[in-house]
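Incident log, support desk, overnight shift.

02:14 A customer reports that sequence design results differ from what the structure should imply. Their input is reproduced verbatim below. On-call engineer (initials T.W.) acknowledged and began investigating.
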């Protein structure tokens, strides 16, 4: 009898793994994990509070302006030789409805103050832009004077001219 002495073929030796491939694979996995963690952390409430604090505060919208339009006034102005007059229309800017109500309530007295103030002018002193700005400030000051010792001053913030004619 013949015996066979053939040995089974030895399994092929496993190819040794390259340490470079293992290091690269480990590096890619680490970078992916860090990126995912950073993204999750940036979306969490920890950074959301800081993001809202870093935003600039929104400006408060300005209150809607309140204007009181006066009926136009026509006054004689001081002039040498011939008759001259000033025809003026204006709006008064006030801060609140209470100031508007006070102006409307005392309108006859305020118009009287305006007539006295405007009739005391020389026509030549009303021509330039600076003269008109100065007159607007004088009107504001005059209208803000208290009407009586027991009343508070009016709250006229500014005076705007709608019409301004000197003839």
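02:41 Re-run completed on a clean worker. Output:
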């Amino acid at each position: 009898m013949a015996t066979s002495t053939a040995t089974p073929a030895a399994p092929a030796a496993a190819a040794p793994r390259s340490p470079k491939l293992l290091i690269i694979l480990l590096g890619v996995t680490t970078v992916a994990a860090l990126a995912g963690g950073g993204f999750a952390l940036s979306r969490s409430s920890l950074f959301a509070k800081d993001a809202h604090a870093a935003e600039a505060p929104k400006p408060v919208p300005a209150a809607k302006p309140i204007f009181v339009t006066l009926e136009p006034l026509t006054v004689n102005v001081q002039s040498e030789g011939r008759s001259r007059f000033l025809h003026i229309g204006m709006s008064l800017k006030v801060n609140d409805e209470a100031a508007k109500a006070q102006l409307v309530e005392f309108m006859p007295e305020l118009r009287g103050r305006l007539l006295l103030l405007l009739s005391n002018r020389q026509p030549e002193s009303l021509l330039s832009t600076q003269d008109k700005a100065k007159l607007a400030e004088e009107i504001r000051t005059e209208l803000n004077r208290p009407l009586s010792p027991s009343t508070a001053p009016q709250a006229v913030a500014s005076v705007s001219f709608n019409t301004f004619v000197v003839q």
